[in-house]
Design a protein that fits this description.
eight-stranded parallel β-barrel; 2 domains; TIM Barrel; three-stranded antiparallel sheet; 12 helices; alpha/beta; 38% helix
Length: 339
C-alpha cells in the first residue's frame, strides 16, 4: 500500500505535458502545500533527470512523476493517417506550414523508467497503458509508489493485479488526453461517478481528476471516496506555468470544450476551435502518429497566436480557473477543501 500521507497533501497538481508543467510551477505549488506531479512525457530522459534534480534542489516536499506508456502501432493505421494528412494538407498550406512526418515512437520509455528507478521519486504514475510487472517491481524496490490511470471502473481490476499502489481516476470532464489504457473514443464516466464505482472494487487510494477548479470541488470528490483531488487546468493560468500566450487568452475568453482526436490521434478534451469542428470527426485513432503529423502546424499557431491552429487543452471547469501565483492557488485550494 502507499507510503504517502495523503491527509497532508489532498491537493495534487496534475502533470501537464508539452510545456505547461514546469519545475518552477511544481516548486511553487509544493510551497503552498500541494503535491506536484512532474510531466515526463515528451521530455528526453536527460531532461527528465534534470527536472527531478531541479525540483529537489528547490523543494524538500514529496512529489510525483508521470510518464506515457507506449501506444500500440498496428500496421492498419498507416492508411488512416495518410487520409487524414491529405485532408489537413490544404489547411496547412494556407498557413504556410508543412505537416510533420507521421510516425510511431515510444517516447524513450525504457530509458525514462531507468531514470525513475535511479531517482526514486516518491510516486510514479503511468498513463496510456500499463507498466510491465518488471517495471513495477523495480520501482517498488527503490521505495517508489506506482499509480495507474483509469477511465473505467473495471480497469481498476487490472491495476490491482499488476500491484499498483494507487489509482488516478480521470473523469470525462478532465482536460487533455484520456489517460486510461483503452482509448475507446466513447464517452466515459464522469469523475464523481467513476470514484463511486471504484470504491466497491478496491481499497487502493484514489486520486480523482477532472473538472475541478475550487477546493470545494475537491472536497466533493473526497466525500465520494477519493483520497486526493488533482487539478490541472486550474493551474494553467499561474504565472509559473509554461502555458503559451494564445492558450492563456483562450482559457479566459473562450467557452465550450470537446473531446477530440483531431490534434494527436488520441482522445483529449480541448476548447472548441475550427480545427475540432472541421476535422475532429475525421481524425483516426493513431497516437503518436497524428501527434507528429500535426506538431508543426500547432507550433506555428502558438508562435503566431492563431488559436484555431492550437490544441487548447482544457477541462470543463476552465472558465473558473483563477489567475493566481501557484503557491497562493495551492494554499487557497487547500483551505477551501478543508473548510
Amino acid at each position: 500500500m502507499t507510503r504517502l500521507d495523503w491527509s497532508r497533501h489532498p491537493v495534487v497538481v496534475a502533470p501537464m505535458a508539452g510545456g505547461p508543467t514546469t519545475v518552477e510551477l511544481a516548486v511553487a505549488a509544493a510551497r503552498g502545500g500541494a503535491f506536484p506531479v512532474l510531466a515526463g512525457a515528451y521530455l528526453a530522459p536527460e531532461r527528465l533527470r534534470d527536472d527531478i534534480s531541479s525540483f529537489r534542489a528547490g523543494s524538500p516536499a514529496p512529489f510525483g512523476v508521470n510518464v506515457f506508456v507506449p501506444s500500440p502501432n498496428p500496421p492498419s493505421v498507416a492508411a488512416d493517417v495518410m487520409a487524414y494528412a491529405e485532408l489537413l494538407a490544404p489547411w496547412a498550406a494556407a498557413a504556410g506550414v508543412d505537416l510533420g512526418q507521421a510516425r510511431w515512437d515510444d517516447d524513450a520509455y525504457a530509458a525514462k523508467v531507468d531514470v525513475l528507478v535511479a531517482a526514486a521519486p516518491p510516486l510514479v504514475s503511468f498513463s496510456f497503458g500499463w507498466p510491465s510487472a518488471e517495471d513495477v517491481g523495480r520501482l517498488h524496490d527503490v521505495g517508489t509508489d506506482v499509480w495507474c490511470t483509469v477511465n473505467q471502473p473495471e480497469e481498476a481490476d487490472w491495476a490491482v493485479e499488476l500491484g499498483a499502489d494507487g489509482l488516478v481516476a480521470q473523469g470525462w470532464e478532465a482536460g487533455a488526453h484520456r489517460g486510461g489504457p483503452v482509448d475507446s473514443g466513447q464517452e466515459q464516466p464522469g469523475t464523481l461517478d467513476l470514484v463511486r464505482a471504484l470504491r466497491p472494487r478496491t481499497d487502493l487510494p484514489v486520486m480523482a481528476a477532472g473538472g475541478f477548479a475550487t477546493g470545494t470541488d475537491g472536497a466533493t470528490a473526497v466525500a465520494a471516496g477519493a483520497t486526493a483531488a488533482a487539478y490541472g487546468t486550474a493551474f494553467l493560468l499561474c504565472p509559473e506555468a509554461g502555458t503559451s500566450a494564445v492558450h492563456r487568452h483562450a482559457l479566459v475568453h473562450r467557452r465550450g470544450t470537446t473531446v477530440t482526436r483531431a490534434y494527436t490521434g488520441r482522445s483529449a478534451r480541448a476548447l472548441v476551435t475550427s480545427w475540432t469542428e472541421l476535422y475532429g470527426e475525421a481524425a483516426p485513432a493513431a497516437y503518436p502518429h497524428v501527434h507528429h503529423l500535426t506538431a508543426p502546424l500547432r507550433a506555428h499557431g502558438r508562435s503566431t497566436g492563431e488559436a484555431e491552429l492550437v490544441n487548447l487543452w482544457a477541462g470543463t471547469g476552465h472558465d473558473r480557473a483563477r489567475e493566481l501565483p501557484a503557491e497562493e492557488l495551492a494554499r487557497t485550494l487547500l483551505a477551501e477543501l478543508r473548510d
